[in-house]
Amino acid sequence: MIKTLIFILFILSFSDLAAQKYFSGEISRNTRWQGEIFIDGDVTVPQGVILTIEGGTRIFFKPKSDVLKSGKDKERAELIINGMILAKSNSMSSPIIFTSESKKPQMNDWYGITIKNFYDQSFLQNCIIEFAYKGIICYGSAPIISGGEIRFNHNSGISCEVKAAPIISNLLLMGNGFAGINSELASNPIVSGCTISDNYYGVIVFSRSAPDLGTVPLDETKSKGQNRLSNNFEFDVYNHSNNPVHAQNNIWTSTNARGIPNVIYDKLDNPAYGDVIYLPIFTESRPVVQPPVVIAAAQSEPALDAGSTSQNQASVIPPAPVAEDTAAAIAQQTFSDSIPPLLTTLSESSGQNEEQVSTETALAYNEPPLPAPAEPVIQEPILEAFLDSGKREYVRKVQPEYPKIYLQTGTQGDVLVEVIIDRQGNIEDLRVLRSDGDLFTDASLSALKKFLYKPGQMSGKPVKYKVIERFRFKLKNSQ
């Protein structure tokens, strides 16, 4: 009897998996996604249609698949927004995740989210977007993007194209293969409160674009700055436009203003380009609180919901019609309920004063003193930018050996690896994010096994931290 039940459960589970429904094509009416959504081809939201995504929803893209063979990339699924997308979660404890369906995801498994609406403002709050070619493409549009992480995308975290003007705040942009933010073709994004780290370039600017990374004196219509630009492999800001770029009131790896030009490429390096205006810089006098870092979890079965057809399938619920003025109000609302900015600070001295006052008051009324304010909880592993040193430090670093067969064939490539370092400076875990060849991967991991890092500290306390290691295999005579 028990064996029969086990067999029946196995058959039912297999049937559920076999019946897994994938989405592709055009969404013809206002629609709400929640639970788990699986996509194997381009999904288009036409003009006049709103796609609403609930907090906690996970959208899985079948890797290197586009059953429609359409869009910008005929081999990878895309989410194309000609109408509006309202993807909002109230907390990073329940983010909206756009990711690869693969158990071993890689950069470029799917294409990305393209927002093309020139008139209606889309809204993405507390989202994680990873393993795409480009995380978000703002094509002539001005979405509001706040909170969350855009990471491990092959090209850019956010690409602003053709007079795009998104408002970008309180994001972590890390580990993107080309740039955290790319700005081209007269685009003018406004960027504030973001951490932009461990990308090839932090922010790169082309062709008449002028992103606002911080403008002093402060103005409500401009960026307040307070971005953390650090540890990008080439430059933190690369200005390839002839326009000046304002990047004032920001945090850099170097606290000495004389060192900042080393991580900037602008008019000083090539007179054909504009300046990067970085003074004054933002100086932290108090420790920052590392925001929680959410890792996309393995797929799980959502609770059966009205409107869903299977326990393995998310519910796709058409919402009640939304009037145009209501939709605009939703899209343009303030972020008072969003996660705290990456640069939220706590004052140690203020905490001490409060404790002293509360104790004296309690004694006067013969009552027990109030407890001291709790110390901030550090979510480990932290990003290297939040270490006391501001960046990784090595005890031992080894160069990988160039694979002989690739030398003979003139093959070049890169390998990107996410590395978790324990409190003693040893490698605790790693995963390959991108590789241009299996032999490059083998050589990189062989060298990485011999690495030893200096233990990291945050506010004087030992912590686990994470970095992106890039291994470049480039022939000496190549450009």
How would you characterize the overall build of this protein?
This protein has 479 residues and is mainly β. The chain has 3 domains: 19-331; 351-375, no CATH class; 382-473, TolA/TonB C-terminal domain (2-Layer Sandwich), CATH 3.30.2420. The protein is 12% helix and 31% strand. It has 5 helices and 34 strands. The protein has helices at residues 2-18, 324-331, 348-364, 404-409, 438-448; strands spanning 23-26, 31-34, 36-45, 50-53, 58-61, 78-81, 84-88, 96-100, 112-115, 123-130, 136-139, 144-151, 156-161, 167-169, 172-174, 179-183, 190-192, 195-197, 201-205, 228-230, 237-239, 245-246, 251-252, 264-265, 276-277, 315-317, 382-383, 394-396, 413-421, 427-435, 452-453, 456-458, 461-463, 465-473. The chain has a 24-stranded mixed beta sheet that branches. The protein is globular, with a radius of gyration of 24 Å.
By secondary-structure content and strand pairing, the structural class works out as mainly beta
- Return residue spans where pLDDT drops below 50 for at least 5 consecutive residues: 4-18, 286-315, 317-367
**Helix amount:** 10-25%
The major sheet is characterized as: 24 strands, mixed
- How many domains is the backbone divided into? 3
Net shape: globular
